[in-house]
Amino acid sequence: MGLAFAAVAAVAVVAIVLWLGIVALATPTVAYRLDRRFDLGSREFEEAMSSALAAHIVAGNCVTRLDNGARFYPEMLAAIAGAHRSIALECYIFHPGRIGDAFTAALVERATAGVHVRIILDAFGSRRLRRRHVRRLLRGGCEVAWHPRARWRRAHRLTNSTHRELLVVDGRVAFTGGAGISDCWEPGDRGQPPWRDTMVRVEGPVVTSCQAVFAENWRECRGDILAGEGWFPPIEPCGTTDAAVVKNSLSFAGSRALFQALVECASHEIRLATPYFVPDPSFVSALIERAHRGVSISILLPGRHMDHPWVRLSSRRLFRPLLDAGIRLFEYQPSMTHQKLMIVDRLWTVVGTTNLDMMSFEYLDEINLAVRNEAFARDAQARHDSDLANSVEVQRSWHRSVWEKALAWAVWTLAGQRWILRLRRRPRG
After folding, report:
1. What is the pLDDT, as a whole number, of residue 314?
2. Distances (CA, A) of 420 to 193, 204, 356, 414
3. Domains, in order of start, for the chain
4. Which pLDDT tens digit goes with each residue over 331-342?
5. For the residues of 252-311, what is the DSSP string, one character each?
6. Residue 262 and residue 268 in contact, taking contact as beta carbons nearer than 8 Å
7. pTM of the entire structure?
């Protein structure tokens, strides 16, 4: 009996130690705050972005919003088909299937025609891609690198992934946003409704910044330094939109700082859409503080089609303080919503890959396009209104059951751990 009790006690001690380790890993290391506030339309805010975030606002761009796979996949494939010199593709998600096969065929065709095709795939997010698919790309002349680069001296970066979804063609046109390459975003995927998502097509001088983000990880994975006009051609202004590329990596949390700055400087309205909402306390505090000062805030989240129910459970822990502050929360009903979108004061719009959770904030390489253009913001807001009309608002009277509270407390730390992503399910019909 004594030995059995000792064994149980030892197991309990080990479990507690492991749990405390998970808590330590999931706890954010930095509490973000802005030491002063700026007018979002001012020169001061632009200079603050350039100096603090290494994000230079570039004029003369054309940014086109592309909603849902039926729109953005054909545009991306057409751009690949028209490539003459280079294609740079960085993916967190590249899955086999109809869409994956279409992209593979298009990339191989261009590589066979002499176009330089370089692809970075995340080893975790694209783990479904079988060897035969990769061999097809390699035999077709594409160069493929896996991220993170597997070396024992890089063991400290094993929690790091590239979560970027980025395509740059001829150094002149770029696509980025929430969607990877997968049938999830296409109608008819096992009878499920397609995921709701947003990408942008970018032309103009800011594309050079997009290519630089790809070049950074290509250099990290392969050691090659991309240079020359095949990758970085001179680009003339082609539109009237100001934009900046803001990246996130283990060494530079630019996107995280951008979100904090935009929230703290907002004076009228903040709109957010995110699939995974488990932000750190400083971001939640900033939202609540702005709401108390009269800023209108709405957050669009997944509803019953959520692909990671554990993350949704963790998100709902935060609802009560947000609702009490007057922040409106909506759960999208038609399908899984995977948009990563921020609209602030009808002036700034941020589209990219960063989720409002500790995984994106702490561990992942991300890319976001910050657009300063009132017309673009109005269009984004109109589409957001349409999404809200297809959502259910969480009421102030909402409450969680005792069971949900207990379970949420038990799993909240897991939302910041990459291995928990294996516990996903297919969206329900």
Report:
1. 79
2. 24, 39, 17, 6
3. 28-422 (3.30.870.10)
4. 999 999 999 999
5. EEHHHHHHHHHHHH-SSEEEEE-S-EE--HHHHHHHHHHHHTT-EEEEEEE-TT-S-HHH
6. no
7. 0.88
